Amino acid sequence: xWRDFFAQQEIVQTFMDGVHPGFGQRLDGAIxxxxxxxxxxxxxxxxxxDAKQGGQLRRALKTVGREIQEMFRRHLxxxxxxxxxxxxxVLEHLPKEELAxxxxxxxxxxxxxxxVAMEAETVGGPIDVAxxxxxxxxxxxxxxxxxxxxxxxxxxxxxxxxxxx
Length: 165
Hints:
Layout: H1 10-17, H2 21-45, H3 51-91, H4 96-116, E1 129-133, E2 137-142, H5 153-161
Antiparallel strand pairs: 1-2
Helix pairs in contact: 2-3
């Protein structure tokens, strides 16, 4: 799947799905907690019920709670599918150059997110971009130098002498 190609996936997933993966997980956890606690809270407040009726009510509420959890998960999944389906259909037809630009943009976005959120900056700096295709093989689209070009004019002079761009 496309998500497996990215080491730090949450920004790409947010772009593709329309919702941060952590948000869905957190909301699911909150709904699960609520649905697990609700039967006890409701049943304990109904003092008119005997033990048998209280047990029946708890079981019924637990069943409804599981149905609500499943409904939430289904709706979240449908929401994600509705958001990423049109993007994938466009990506399938983009030229390689534009796919490379998109990949670079997502890396920049991840880097910016890490920097402004004061998280560990595990992504950043100059980005190398290459495209690998069946027809063309490995092609650099953008490549940083491992040295500062302005401090090494002899390198570029030698390249020009050799006839290389």
